Amino acid sequence: MKKAIFNWSGGKDSSLSLFYLQQSKEYDIRYLVTSVNSKFNRISMHGVRQELLEQQAESIGIPLHMIRVPEMPTMEIYNELMEHALQKFKAEGIEYSVFGDIFLEDLKKYREERLARVGIKGVFPIWKIPSQQLVREFIDRGFKAVLVCVDEKVLDRSFVGRLIDDSLLKDLPAKVDPCGENGEYHSFVYDGPIFKRPIAFDFGEIVHRDYAKTSTTGTSVCSNTPVVNTGFWYCDLVPQNL
After folding, report:
1. 226 or 44: whose pLDDT is higher?
2. Whole-number Å distance between alpha carbons of 183 and 227
3. What whole-number distance in Å separates Cα of residue 218 and Cα of residue 158?
4. Which residues pair with 136 in a beta bridge?
5. 125 touches 17 (CB < 8 A)
6. Which of these, 51, 64, 50, lies nearest to 18 by C-alpha position?
């Protein structure tokens, strides 16, 4: 089997991509790799607590490798942190890096260029599959997820904290990609066929955050969201063991 790392966001596209890889039995996923905000101990951009990320990895059964990044990393700092991690993986004989991207060509190109610097190849299991088809499959296969972050430019406060289900798909505005591939929303998956057991949590407070400016692809190892002069609604998820 091909040794690989999986760039894990904790969300819907990552979960379905990992499911695809598990079904193919072609790759040996050595690590789930996630960038974590070093100030708040939360997944970069998504805002999900580190404790829930760790519970996901434990339930999936794949070791978690966290890359700690500053609160607002520059592109240079982000690239340095990522390249250092990739060199470590390469030294372990890992030759593939998996992403849950769907159709953003510039992001895919960026990822492949950075990987090529250390001799690792990119793998994109759900690339170019229509978003409507993907989200339909996600629901039909029994995955469960909640929206933890929404871009206020396209979705209002009422959407954050909602489950990804038929009701949500019906209510999404026509201009919003069903998978949120343009950064309209981010999700946290708490159950489904890749998990040994569900992730238990309670809903916490809903907060608003403004971002003046940050890098286009450097926010997160898994994020594809440009954040420039915009605001986001976040729903905090609280692990039930806290």
Report:
1. 44
2. 9
3. 28
4. none
5. yes
6. 64
Residue with tokens 């990044």: 69
Residue 29 has pLDDT above 80, yes or no: yes
| Mean pLDDT, rounded, for 41-47 | 92
| pLDDT, tens digit (0-9, with 9 covering 90-100), for 187-241 | 999 999 999 999 999 999 999 998 765 443 333 333 434 344 579 999 999 999 7
CA 227 to centroid of chain Cα atoms: 15
pTM here is 0.91
The answer to whether the beta carbons of residues 188 and 236 sit under 8 Å apart is: no
Q: In the numeric block, which tokens belong to residue 129?
A: 């599959």
Burial of 24 (0-12, 13-18, 19+ CB in 10 A): exposed
Pairing of strands 27-37, 42-43: antiparallel
Identity at 34, one-letter amino acid code: T
Asked whether the beta carbons of 60 and 28 are under 8 A apart, the reply is no
